[in-house]
Design goal:
Blueprint: H1 9-13, H2 17-51, H3 58-68, H4 72-105
Helix pairs in contact: 2-4
């Protein structure tokens, strides 16, 4: 379940609610950060296009996106993405471990 649905869902399915909720919450926080920063950057580009500061062509938009993807925000976005991936991997491995232990005890 964790591998295909969302990190932590496998734990919740296995009735390991605390680790499941922690994984779901941390993953949602990372996804929220990624989406909010992406939308914020897109809105800044749209504002520049509407004000006439930037032409509405592919080359100008590509240049603006490249400029915005440098610096501290870029590093934080990368950290958030890696965190989500790591949480997903932890969720899959730990759900598998818990499921195997449960099967072995039955």
């Amino acid at each position: 379940m964790s591998a295909f649905v969302f990190p932590g869902v496998g734990h919740i399915y296995l009735k390991k609610y605390i680790p499941g909720v922690v994984l779901v919450g941390a993953s949602l926080a990372g996804i929220y950060y990624l989406i909010s920063k992406t939308v914020e950057n897109a809105l800044q580009i749209v504002e520049q296009m509407q004000s006439g500061a930037v032409q509405a062509n592919v080359a100008a938009i590509t240049e603006l996106v490249a400029k915005q993807s440098t610096g501290t925000d870029s590093q934080l976005l990368n950290i958030a993405a890696v965190t989500i991936i790591v949480l997903w991997i932890i969720g899959v491995i730990d759900s598998y471990r818990v499921g195997r232990a449960r099967d072995a005890s039955n």
